[in-house]
Amino acid sequence: MDNKFFKSVENKTGVNMNDVFKLAGSLQNANFKDENTVRGVIKKVAQLANKRVPKEMEDKIVQSITSGKEKLDFNTIAKMMNNKK
């Protein structure tokens, strides 16, 4: 993928791709069974996306990921953050 593609994504989302790559790199050896690790990732993703995650929603996401019901990736977190339930 070329730089033009990443610039297009940045323009559409407002998220700096270098920050996304840094976060992705930091997740490679992370322990997703650890609640504190998962909470940190959720907070970082919310910060990158400029979204607020209510405590109740954060708790649901953490429970789902640490229990192994969901894998931790940007799509999973974004879907849970946008869920109105």
UniProtKB/TrEMBL annotation:
InterPro entries: SpoVIF. Pfam families: SpoVIF. It comes from the Bacteria. This is Sporulation protein.
